[in-house]
Specification:
Layout lengths: L9 E5 L4 H12 L5 E4 L7 H11 L12 H5 L8 H10 L8 E4 L2 E4 L11
Parallel strand pairs: 1-2
Antiparallel strand pairs: 1-3, 3-4
């Protein structure tokens, strides 16, 4: 599944076991917004997709990596790791990707808090 290419397309990257993800999905559904879903733990993002996501978010990977996950240390990451190393680790350990993320056209936003996704609507 590729990322949206127009503002008419929305893609929610999420983990159904995450309460913030479920809340974000509910916000979209309550508003009758059509969107696609990608369960990124089941269908991990490639490094190229993660690079594209960083561009759409307007943030380097250092700002949206989940540092408290065990996989952070397992991947050999530290607080001083650069964005390239973090992207490699996120591709290998998708649990490191902050969630949820809503992608619309060429933009994306992290749903923390979930209401932040409404900025793209």
């Amino acid at each position: 599944m590729s990322f949206p290419t127009s503002d008419d397309e929305l893609l929610l990257l999420h983990n159904s076991r995450c309460s913030k993800c479920r809340a974000s999905k509910a916000l979209l559904e309550e508003r009758g917004v059509a969107f696609s879903e990608r369960f990124y733990l089941d269908e991990p993002l490639s490094k190229e997709e993660l690079e594209e996501l960083a561009t759409r978010l307007g943030k380097p990977a250092t700002e949206w990596v989940r540092r408290k996950e065990d996989a952070f240390a397992v991947a050999g990451l530290t607080d001083d790791s650069n964005a390239d190393a973090i992207l490699d680790a996120m591709a290998a350990h998708p649990i490191l990707v902050e969630r949820p993320i809503l992608v619309r056209g060429q933009r994306a936003v992290i749903g923390r808090p979930p209401e932040d996704i409404l900025d793209l609507l």
